[in-house]
């Protein structure tokens, strides 16, 4: 029997990272999820060889890029092989046999609570309470048999911990998606259909250099889909660029020509771009 | 007697926003601080004319840019007139007459707790507990006379609420600074010594256009100090650029030439650049 592939994630079982890990590792015959409490410990686990892969959130459509996570990738010299967008369907769940009127306290991660502020305005009898994780809030309700308390988490957490769904898609906007990256310690083989590159440069990056870099990208018909300046303290203010082109070869040629122009060019990954799903979700009290 | 100038801030009295508001409004003869619980409500208060000014954090040296805040500035059509960098000196404080060994619980904002993780590793008898605000955690200790509980907050909170400092500068790194912006509803008069501009563009911004924009900036000897792609959901993925030049005129001329090239150029502010302080702080148990 084959040993399962170990994948480090941020958060616990039935978290959104767990769902992303299952999607991104569909080629593996069996996987074992290793929960981490922070993004830094996830990188350390992968670097130490305690896991074969890791999955890390990098962008949310409401909050934007998770800038410190790019710094972690850079510092730990990790490699990205794939990405996926996942809808973040915030659901309200509680021990079976209760309805919303019987709930007084709602526990979840602060970001999830914040994303559901209209729901709290509509149900003023509900008091939000902050916790470390969405799925772990659901787990606590099951383990401590907490009546009158609900959790906000993904549907998978309700299934795993045997809770009843009281409401689905209760976030303020239905356009709530998170992009997750699949990470490796060593450089993985590049997919033939790769059409995206994720790079970082060290600053200072003078306007003259940046103009030259962009004119080279233009020459190779490479589009810049994302530019981010990283936090000043750790990285000395690096710049991240996500690039897109029709073929992997265009990206590789453009990168080869840029390399001598800039300080500390690091290719974080050459991969296939994931499309942001268009689907709209409708809030529903069940 | 003159009515005090009302300034909306995020957080309560003795918070870091409060300190930034006092620095940024030093020209006002008297001010009144209006606390807001979210950055959105701060913008709404200013737009509704309930405050004359507002102060908003935009960047931290550890966490990077607060990307959704640029979106709020854009959506509410607000104007920036000044900025300041403030050292974030996380201190441990409790009711007087206790030492660290007598404390069991430490309350603060999740980001402050996270920034002090080495301190918690060194003092494993301390249990962190999350709260909504740093300064309000200090207030709760005073009001509820909580023995055995400490708060992590700025020194000003200890002074305001009569708590004793147990330790100073307990964050993992001393390079913890936050940049704050002074905001107006109407466009303010530009300072003569302005040497910085904050702009945003609507995307899609093709490589060809971006190359043209940068070559114009280069022609006017304008340096790009920051580039950020904003969250996809609300703003349709705008790009923010912070620019620096020797004179205000160089910036104005460059902006005039860029304007016809890009969609929806918005000048968020033309102001004097604040320098990031170099000072190092040393952690100290008092």
TrEMBL record, chains A, B:
Which Gene3D superfamilies does the entry link to?
A: Periplasmic binding protein-like II (3.40.190.10)
Q: What name has this protein been given in UniProt?
A: prephenate dehydratase
**One Gene Ontology term from the biological process aspect of the record:** L-phenylalanine biosynthetic process
At what residues does the UniProt record annotate the site feature described as Essential for prephenate dehydratase activity? 178
Give the enzyme class. Answer: lyase
Instruction: Name the InterPro entries for this protein.
Output: Chor_mutase/pphenate_deHydtase, Preph_deHydtase, Preph_deHydtase_CS
UniProt superkingdom = Bacteria
Species whose genome carries this gene: Pontibacter oryzae
EC numbers for this chain: 4.2.1.51
Pfam families assigned: PDT
Arranged from A to Z, the UniProt key words for this protein are: Amino-acid biosynthesis, Aromatic amino acid biosynthesis, Lyase, Phenylalanine biosynthesis
What the entry lists under PANTHER family is as follows: PREPHENATE DEHYDRATASE P PROTEIN, PREPHENATE DEHYDRATASE-RELATED
State any single GO MF term.
prephenate dehydratase activity
CDD domains in the cross-refs: PBP2_Ct-PDT_like
Prephenate dehydratase domain location is 6-185
Q: Which reaction does it catalyse?
A: prephenate + H(+) = 3-phenylpyruvate + CO2 + H2O
Asked if the record carries the keyword Cytoplasm, the reply is no
List the GO terms this entry assigns under cellular component, sorted alphabetically: cytoplasm
Name the pathway: Amino-acid biosynthesis; L-phenylalanine biosynthesis; phenylpyruvate from prephenate: step 1/1
């Amino acid at each position: 029997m084959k040993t399962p592939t170990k994948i480090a994630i941020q958060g616990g079982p039935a978290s959104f990272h767990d769902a992303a890990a299952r999607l991104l590792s569909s080629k593996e015959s069996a996987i074992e999820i290793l929960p981490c409490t922070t993004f830094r410990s996830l990188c350390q686990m992968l670097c130490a060889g305690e896991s074969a892969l890791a999955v890390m959130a990098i962008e949310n459509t409401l909050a934007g890029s998770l800038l410190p996570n790019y710094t972690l990738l850079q510092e730990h010299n990790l490699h990205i092989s794939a990405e996926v967008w996942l809808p973040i369907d915030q659901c309200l769940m509680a021990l079976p046999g209760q309805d919303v009127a019987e709930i007084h306290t709602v526990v979840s991660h602060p970001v999830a609570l914040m994303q559901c502020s209209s729901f709290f305005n509509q149900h003023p009898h509900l008091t939000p309470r902050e916790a470390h994780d969405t799925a772990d809030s659901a787990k606590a309700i099951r383990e401590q048999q907490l009546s009158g308390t609900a959790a906000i988490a993904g549907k998978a957490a309700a299934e795993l911990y045997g809770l009843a769904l009281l409401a689905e898609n209760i976030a303020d906007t239905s356009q709530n998606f998170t992009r997750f990256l699949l990470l490796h310690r060593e450089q993985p083989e590049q997919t033939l259909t790769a059409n995206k590159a994720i790079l970082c440069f060290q600053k200072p990056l003078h306007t003259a250099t940046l103009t030259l870099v962009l004119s080279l990208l233009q020459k190779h018909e490479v589009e810049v889909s994302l530019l981010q300046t990283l936090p000043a303290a750790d990285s000395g203010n690096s710049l991240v660029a996500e690039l897109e082109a029709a073929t992997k070869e265009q990206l590789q040629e453009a990168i080869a020509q840029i390399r001598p122009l800039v300080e500390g060019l690091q290719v974080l990954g050459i991969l296939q771009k994931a499309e942001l799903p268009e689907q709209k979700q409708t809030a529903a009290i069940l």
